[in-house]
Amino acid sequence: MQKRKSGRRKFIIQTFIGGMAAGLGCKYGYATHVLAAQPAAAKPAAVLPVVLSTWSHGIPANQAAMDVLSAGGSVLDAVEQGVRVPEADPTIESVGYGGLPDASGEVTLDACIMDSNGDAGAVAYLKNILHPISVARKVMEKTPHLMLVGDGAYKFAIDQGFEPTNLLTENANQKYEEWQASGSTYAPHANWENHDTIGLLAIDKNGDMAGACTTSGMAFKHSGRVGDSPIIGAGLFVDNEIGGATATGEGEAVMKTLGSFLIVELMRQGYTPQQACEEAVNRIVAKVKLHPHFQIGYIALNKAGQTGAYAYRPGFQYALHQDGSNTLFNTNSLKTTWNEE
How confident is the model at residue 47 (pLDDT cuts 50, 70, 90)? Predict the structure, then answer.
């Protein structure tokens, strides 16, 4: 049984449009249907467990998580093992191994994990470690802290037995050199090309929930930049009495509105997961100054197994493993076209 953390720690914690995405889903062979239309209303789960995640790489992540749950494993193990799949995939340019580097040419990783007890762990600006999600879990379980960053996170990972790994692939290095040759001096704004964080939520057959979120962040970001993905309440939040939420897109806007925490609190007030995701996007529109290429997406899962997903612009997708079907959906969005003001 995992040891519960202190009261103070408890206080601290409280869109690649269809063709490419379809190809990715079919590549892994797990999708029962690829790029289906988002359901018009929240669908209650006929049978638990349920796994929900962001983007087409959520299909294999969902399968790995569901395999753990089907074998009787814990929901915490499920979310960790789920997101480890894209973390280790060199073809994914926004997560883990294969992730595009920052402006200095280094791949830096951010991740967080949260369990059904309300405990959480996170790492940020972590270099040369293949699975930041597993380091984040070790932070949660082996330290009195919630987050470790940079060199300290790396040393902790090595002390815990993680092996140093060169994360810069040939493809990522080539794209970095092309970016340098273009004369750009600062990171691009987040858009559908460079913000595909993997966030995953799961609920087991007993109704217990956990979540995980991991990314290599915005491509060619300013060295030292950390987005929302490792921030509890921003990139991810889970309350086992209510549900969970996770974000993808421009992390700065998510942090300014604590979007994942907001969604869970809205569900606490009676909103469906879909309504809560829509309101969280509306909150950003109302409170945050947006640039022309801005994009954000949220997914949410409640204790009844109902799901929600919503984005600012079209193009965001989410993967849902429910009632034996692992399906990739196009998400509804506030804007009807990418170029709509």
Answer: confident
* Annotated active-site residue in 54, 169, 197, 215: 197
Q: How many CB atoms lie within 10 A of CB 28?
A: 17
Which phi and psi (to 5°) does residue 214 adopt? -150, 145
Q: What would the pLDDT profile of 108-130 be if each residue is shown by its tens digit?
A: 999 999 999 999 999 999 999 99
The secondary structure of residue 308, as a DSSP letter, is: E
Question: In Å, what is the CA distance from 255 to each residue of 112, 240, 251, 258, 275?
Answer: 14, 22, 6, 5, 20
Residue 81 main-chain phi, psi, to 5 deg: -65, -30
The CA distance from 92 to 90, in Å, is 5
In the predicted model, what is the mean pLDDT of residues 162-186?
92
Cβ atoms < 10 Å from Cβ of 319: 30
Residue type, 30: Y
Question: What is the tens place of the pLDDT at every residue in 266-288?
Answer: 999 999 999 999 999 999 999 99
Dihedral of CA 68/72/73/74: which sign? Answer: positive
Helix axes 259-268, 273-287, angle to 10 degrees: 130
54 is an active site residue = no
- What SS3 class is residue 153? helix
The pLDDT of residue 195 is 58
Please, what is the angle between helix 132-142 and helix 75-87, to 10°? Answer: 150
What CATH number belongs to 7-330?
3.60.20.30
